Amino acid sequence: MSALPGDFWETLPLGEGVAPLTRDANGLAAFNKPAGLLSHPNGSEDEARSLLTCRYDKEAQCFSWKADDGTERRLWLLNRLDSATSGVILTAASEKLALAVRDHYAKQQVRKAYQALVFGRPRKNFELWLDQLAVQKKGGQIRTATVGNVPAQTSFQLVKHTQKTFSTSLVRLEPRTGRSHQLRVQCAKRQLPIIGDQTYGDFALNREFAKLHQNKRLFLHSLETAFTYEFGGRRCDFKAVAPLPREFTAAY
After folding, report:
1. Domain boundary residue among 107, 130, 150?
2. From CA 216, how far away is CA 197, in angstroms rounded?
3. pLDDT, tens digit, for every residue of 96-148?
4. Residue 135 needs a FRET pair 20 to 30 A away by CA distance; which of 3, 37, 151, 154 works?
5. Quick one: how far is CA 142 from the chain centroid?
6. Does 1 fall in a domain?
7. Which domain holds residue 176?
8. H, E, C per residue of 151-182
9. Structural domain tally of the chain?
10. Dihedral Cα 18, 21, 23, 29, nearest 10 deg
11. CA gap 186, 130 in Å, rounded
C-alpha cells in the first residue's frame, strides 16, 4: 500500500459523534458509530448524517473527499450497521486492503459481538439460537420473518437481568450468520424484543419505556469485532471494541 498523507486520519470528515477506536499499520480502522447516523449516504442529501460527511460511491463502497491542498482522498467501507444501531464499523484506506477484509466477511470469518437491552427475562442463560428466516426487500425496505428457508445462527448469553419499572435483560449476541435484521427478529421470536425496536418490538412497552427514560433509540450495540487476516504476505490480528453507550447503563 502506498504511504498515506501524514494528516490522513486526523482530517477525516467524520459525522457528528463518530469516534475513532483503533487502526493498524495496513490502514484498517474502526470507528464507533452513534445511533441515528447512516453507515453511508444514499444520496447527497444524506451526507450530513453519515459516518463520513462526503460523497459515497455505492459501487466501489468508498467515501471520497478533497483535502485542503485539493488532492482527492478515499476511504473504503467494510461493513454496515442499521442507522438505529450503534457501535463498531470498519474502514480501509486502500482498495486492496478492502478486498482482502471483505473476503473474510463473505466467508463468515469475522467474529462479531453485540449487546442488546431487551424486555423480559430469558429462560436460559446460554443458548444457541437456530432459525430459518425469510428476508424480503421491497421499496427500499427490508423485512425479515421467522418462517423461511434462510438459516440464521446466533450465540446468546444473559449478562444481567433487572426488575424495576420494567423487566429488562442486558444480553450478549454473537451472530454466526449475517442475515438482515437477524438479531432483532431472533430476539422478538423468543419474547425478548429489543427495546426501541420500531419494526419487530413491543410497541406499547416501547412507548412506556421512552416516556420514562426520555430515549427512543434502538438498544442494540455492535460491541466488538475481531478477526485475523492476511495482507502483504503477513497474518494480522485485528480487534475493535466500542464501549457500551451511557444510555444502556442508565436504563438497566
Report:
1. 107
2. 9
3. 999 999 888 777 789 999 999 999 999 999 999 999 988 787 666 777 777 77
4. 37
5. 16
6. yes
7. 114-220
8. EEEEEEEEEEEEECCCEEEEEEEEECCCCCCH
9. 2
10. -40
11. 9
